[in-house]
């Protein structure tokens, strides 16, 4: 491929991730505005954006990103982050990335989101999509839902049903390149805590190293995943944000958040990738809940 064509693809991907970030932030701020004051006193939250820069393992400039954080009434903590980073992988990391063992240079751009609502009836959620270039080029990402109350953590729960249907539809819109059952199983297998023998949440879809040979189709699918998330999650929040909760519900929420911490620190590849490539630590670890318990 001509270098100019690859650069154009990089720019298109970066611009999409940043545009999606803006739309998601606006939607979540609107939810924080709408949440009933009787349950959520105080003023509504707003995202604070903090730019950051990085150097690669050799000390050379390596791009950066913008960390967008909100602590609101409804959302106890939510981060919607975009980054575009480049440089060379450190030697000990090259064998883990497709194409990097041949040439350590890389470029990666993406969006990553994690939301921890205050109300235990509102599920936590994670979403990320990215475009990565080494000597190969591929998309990755997905979205998964984490209800924190035991009575809501099953595939028949209305929130779970609706979330899975949204991810199913995103795949079905690009069925030739995005097999839903494969990506659903990948999510179930990935977001699993082996030491506890339990899933982190109720799943969704997950994909990586996605390169069908048709870049435009792969990019269209990745955009579809982002739009599906933007459509379904605010709807799930509105269904639940007026429901009252008990002290027992809050206790269960804080304990369940502990499972989230365990997964992200022990198993999550995105956390490891960010830390090993000199990413912004505050941004990478913003997925940690603001309050959590291990009884």
Keywords:
globular, 7 helices, alpha+beta, 295 residues
Describe the structure.
It is a single chain. By secondary structure, the protein is α+β, with helices and mostly antiparallel strands. Helices cover 39% and strands 26% of the residues. It is built from seven helices and nine strands. The chain has helices at 3-34, 158-172, 180-190, 215-240, 247-266, 269-276, 281-284; strands at residues 48-55, 61-70, 75-88, 105-117, 124-133, 137-146, 192-193, 198-199, 203-210. Strands 1-2-3-4-5-6-9 form a seven-stranded antiparallel sheet. The chain has a two-stranded antiparallel ribbon with strand order 7-8. α1 packs parallel to α4. The protein is globular, with a radius of gyration of 19 Å.
Summarize the structure.
By secondary structure, this protein is of the alpha+beta class.
Which percent range fits the helix content? 25-40%
Task: Tell me what portion of residues adopts beta-strand conformation.
Answer: 25-35%
- Please provide the count of β strands: 9
Number of DSSP helical runs: 7
Low-confidence stretches: none
Largest sheet geometry: 7 strands, antiparallel
* Spatial ordering of strands, largest sheet: 1-2-3-4-5-6-9
Q: Report how far the terminal alpha carbons are from each other.
A: 55 Å
Query: SSE order in H/E notation?
Result: HEEEEEEHHEEEHHHH
The outline comes out as: globular
The average pLDDT is 94
Radius of gyration, taken over Cα atoms and rounded to an integer in Å? 19 Å
Structural class, please?
alpha+beta
